[in-house]
């Protein structure tokens, strides 16, 4: 139940992260509109121009944020960015001396849409122009630098939100791909196992059955009876082997668990090495040990500061000792034979 709860929380965080980025991106322009009405030197006229310009550019800006926060490229993003630039820069002489704060949206959208180095050049130009433009519109030199600082910090904050949401989406996509790959590997392992064990036994039974039928048709009842006796014994052995393997398949493979853990850590940016003994490891892992291994991997993923991890499996007379070593910390899990 705890694992399902953690998974639900993780999926919920991934779903809400883009919504949070869009919401924060929509709240900042509302502050801008409020200042256009109330700040010194502004009035109803500048406030109305601010409302009209914000209503024109904000949907285009939020569209850029929505796609980027979901780790997707904005389709046809260049033309909406051009319209944003025309609206925001064109409204500058009309929407009051605090309007250059709206350059924040233009900076963020430029960095999300334009390729480097044009996006960086545009960002520097807009941030540097905020204070002189605001002073030219009547803002004192004492307050103008604060406007530049506001544009710079607001742009960084919004970009961090977008980056975080996109990172969560990419991490979830990587986890799903790894889970699918683990399922495919387990299916191939079971298919190879059945083909080399039960498949060979069934082919042998079919051949001996044909031989028994031939001898029965050829008037050799004694030899046919001998073949049938062998068939009955072989069928019982094959049935017992099939039941044993089905019981084993109900338990997950230890090797698959270890390879999946290493793949998840690697996908999260942790340099991971998996050392397995040459003598091999047990086919299965009990639920208790499997839960302990998954809890350790989950802790490392949540901490976020782990740089390197080594998972070592040591054979101890049939038992296996798993050692998870990460940045100076060591956790051991004993897997019984």
Automatic annotation (TrEMBL):
Coiled coil: none annotated. It comes from the Bacteria. Keywords: Membrane, Transmembrane, Transmembrane helix. The chain crosses the membrane at residues 12-31, 37-58, 79-99, 119-139, 146-166. This is Histidine kinase. It comes from Nonomuraea helvata.
